[in-house]
Amino acid sequence: MKKIICLLAVVLMIASVAFAAGKMKIAAKDLPGLKGTWEGIVSFGLFETGDTSPMKLEILNDAVPVKAKLTITNVPEQVGKTYGLMSGQNVFEADNGLISSQGTLMWVGPQGNICELSKGEKKAFLWYYFKGMKGEATLKKK
Q: What is the dihedral of CA 47, 4, 126, 55, to 10 degrees?
């Protein structure tokens, strides 16, 4: 089991490098500009139905470790049942955000859950891996 988790971590790190390609790197000086509320649509990438939901990412401070609150407004019932979540609104909080060597802002949670943020010109891009489910979101600052 430990070998699988380690292998998964390596694969996710490689994927994060590919995801960060073409995006602007985040540095400590960028954190004040990222602080605030970001909104967009999150996809639940493992489902063929194309389920999406409105989401809000609140970056609560401008120093490492970065604290964040993620609210998914409408988790579809199918997604909730599969991953042990409530359908409807779900809120996740993290207080361990660090700037990765690839220039992304990354939060790592229990059971290998990962949430990673990169920035574009006027948008932010979120990628997540949660309980075996992966997906992404494009966010705009409010």
A: 50
Segment 92-102, tens digit of pLDDT: 999 999 999 99
Q: Which residue has the higher pLDDT, 16 or 139?
A: 139
Cα–Cα distances (Å) from 126 to 16, 27, 77, in that order, read 11, 16, 22
Q: State the CATH class of domain 2-141.
A: mainly beta
CA distance 16 to 138: 16
Residues 112-141 have a mean pLDDT of: 91
Which residues, in sequence order, are bridge partners of residue 115?
107, 128
How many angstroms separate the most distant Cα atoms in the chain? 42
Residue entry with tokens 């997540």? 128
Read off the pTM.
0.79
H or E segment to which residue 92 belongs = strand 88-99
Cis peptide before 32 (omega within 30 of 0): no
- pLDDT at residue 82, rounded to an integer: 78
Q: What value, to the nearest 5°, has the Cα angle with vertex 66 and ends 138 and 29?
A: 85
**3-state class (DSSP) for residue 77:** helix
Q: Tell me the domain boundaries of the chain.
A: 2-141
